[in-house]
Amino acid sequence: MKLSVGIITFNEENRIGKTLDSVREIADEVIVVDSGSNDRTVEIALAKGAKVFVEKWKGYGPQKNSVLKKCKGEWILLIDADEVISPQLKVKIKSIINSENPSGDVYKIKLRNIAFKKEIKFGGWDDYVIRLWKNGKVKINSREVHEQYQTDSQIKKIKKMIIHYTYDSIEEFLEKLNRYTSQSAKEYIKKGKNPSFIKIYSKMLFRFIKMYILQLGFLDGYEGYLLAKYSSIYTMTKYTKLREEYYNNLGNDTSLVITTYNWPKALEACLNSALDQTVTPKEIIIADDGSKQETIDLVKRFQQSYPQSNIIHSWQEDKGFRAGMSRNRAISKATGNYIIIIDGDLILNRHFVEDHIKNMERGCFIQGSRVITSPAMAKEIMEGKKINLFTKGLKNNMNMVRSKLLSKIFTKVDRNLRGVRSCNMSFFKDDLIRVNGFEEEIEGWGREDSELAVRLFNIGCKKKKLKFEALTCHLYHNENDRSRLKKNDEYLAKAIENKKTKAKKGLDRYERSNAGNN
């Protein structure tokens, strides 16, 4: 068997017949791998004598490799369902495959594109593509889109043409644009790419300039302009989808824990800000230290209104201020491997979760900062008032400034207890497990966060004091009872003195924490 022709198809009833007719005189077999067409593609291909295999779509690279495995011929011609072999090319292919001593084993063939019913000669569209080779001489990588052909053989050129019918209409172009850009975005997300707005805009602009001016696309008239314009839109759409996909996935391994106690009005404002994030956490866990029915009802309302946000209510009986225990219970329920802890009286900047995740660093926990409000301003914020750097009734106003540049300059990494506050912190869960979470022997207000930091320092972690990112606004409230502060100071001093690394009563008390296994 001399020549196998391979084609992948999906809903190509308007073209596949013409494509198959163009190879009928030179093909000993035609292999079609269809991706589940719901039109007459398969029926037409069978009627034209092709061997048709229907397989689930795996991406361009894997799908074409499936075709190659089924080809039995000495030579392979791999074409697309919208390509036609010109009469001149058929003669050339016959001479190559029937020659006892062909000039090469792998051939690039000139591709002439027909777009919007016009022959396109400029704009970078007049190109050569690998289409013909001796069986086994070319491999195709497994990329889902823009697959690459790989060979160790010298590549020869054939000037006779394949006619490529790309887009008959704008509608068809846009349909393919949507499909191809989605596949490209998925391919890029695997590589961890995240384009900035400037990169997206510059790539879009350059694509147009390159095609229309540098590659003389303007010589193709109105159709040349359309191709350059819509190709730049393709580039923009591809990277925009990538950026969207990146942010959609960024919080997939992060749990947000919100501590609360009998202040549903503040919790409601806090939850609204948590649900308005640029990056959505995997779950939001309410660490409730025994709140009454009003808070329970509030959480249920949010769970019903935002089922996709996976809001979990972790409640414990009210037996006094037991923030450490409340947080441990919540952390034990967390399925994310990165934990952000905040208090339920904070309003979060919409980039808050994003900033914590992007700044996470192995061997560190993050300590964020806050703006403090006056009583009157706290009331206005809970009633829906938006605030900014210049809002009156705020302390530490500079903590309202979000700047990646300033953050790089002023963020510090150290082992200093100064400024440790559990109202805005984040950790790798396995670090929390190593130190057994918060020390539950510390009850009442104060020092449970500092004591945790000491133990993290003692296992080798550092504090990353984050400035100008992960911004929060703290709603004013009366001070908590501090009658146990002196005793808690003693706990902290002993932890420092004894170089303590693990809580006596901590995460290992809860079934899902896995702390007992570490």
What is the mean predicted local confidence, pLDDT?
A: 91
Low-pLDDT segments: none
CATH fold descriptor of the largest domain: Spore Coat Polysaccharide Biosynthesis Protein SpsA, Chain A
Estimated share of beta-strand residues = 15-25%
How would you describe the shape? elongated
- The CATH architecture name of the largest domain reads Alpha-Beta Complex
Task: Tell me the count of domains.
Answer: 3
CATH homologous superfamily placement of the largest domain: Spore Coat Polysaccharide Biosynthesis Protein SpsA, Chain A
CATH class of the largest domain: Alpha Beta
The total of beta strands comes to: 23
Counting H and I runs of at least 4 residues, what is the number of helices?
Answer: 16
Q: For the record, give the distance between the C-alpha atoms at the N and C termini, rounded to a whole number.
A: 63 Å
Secondary-structure content class: alpha/beta
Biggest sheet overview: 9 strands, mixed
Percentage of helical residues?
25-40%
Gyration radius over CA? 32 Å
Keywords for this entry:
eight-stranded mixed β-sheet; Glyco_trans_2-like; alpha/beta; single chain; Galactosyl_T_C; Spore Coat Polysaccharide Biosynthesis Protein SpsA, Chain A; 23 strands
Q: What's the gist of this structure?
A:
This protein has 518 residues and is α/β, with parallel strands linked by helices.
Which helices and strands occur, and which strands form pairs?
Elements: E1 3-9, H1 16-23, E2 29-34, H2 41-47, E3 51-54, H3 60-70, E4 75-78, E5 83-85, H4 87-97, E6 106-115, E7 118-120, E8 127-134, E9 139-140, E10 149-150, E11 155-167, H5 170-190, H6 197-214, H7 221-250, E12 254-260, H8 264-274, E13 283-288, H9 293-305, E14 311-315, H10 323-333, E15 338-343, E16 346-348, H11 352-359, E17 364-367, E18 371-373, H12 375-382, E19 394-395, H13 404-410, E20 412-414, E21 424-428, H14 429-434, H15 448-458, E22 462-465, E23 472-474, H16 485-497
Parallel strand pairs: 1-2, 1-4, 2-3, 6-11, 12-13, 12-15, 13-14, 17-22, 18-23
Antiparallel strand pairs: 4-8, 5-11, 6-7, 6-8, 9-10, 15-21, 16-23, 17-21, 18-19, 20-22
Helix pairs in contact: 5-7, 6-7, 8-9, 15-16
InterPro entries: Galactosyl_T_C, Glyco_trans_2-like, Nucleotide-diphossugar_trans
GO molecular function, one term: glycosyltransferase activity
Protein name: Glycosyltransferase
